């Protein structure tokens, strides 16, 4: 989804337009996550870009997207560009940490005494 949202429209409340834009993004994400996953994919990830225009958009993590929208529009911007593109995510195993196993064993020994 690549879209420019206008926030200063004649006869419409700016805050409602901002809420409608956020709702539109959430609706897109929900629809994408509802699709069946391909066999080699663990989850759907989202690559996001945000800016006042398409040319000035910078990459933003999905978890920080709505906070970034609030920050961008707080100054009274008349529009913002949001790009949310679905990508395939693969889970990776955490690296083995021997010190964590030693700490767990020490905790178990302490509880036994």
UniProtKB/TrEMBL annotation:
Organism superkingdom: Bacteria
InterPro entries recorded: DUF6172 (IPR046170)
Pfam families reported for this sequence: DUF6172
Taxonomic lineage: Bacteria, Pseudomonadati, Pseudomonadota, Betaproteobacteria, Burkholderiales
The protein's name: Uncharacterized protein
Compositionally biased region (Low complexity): 101-113
Region ranges (Disordered): 89-113
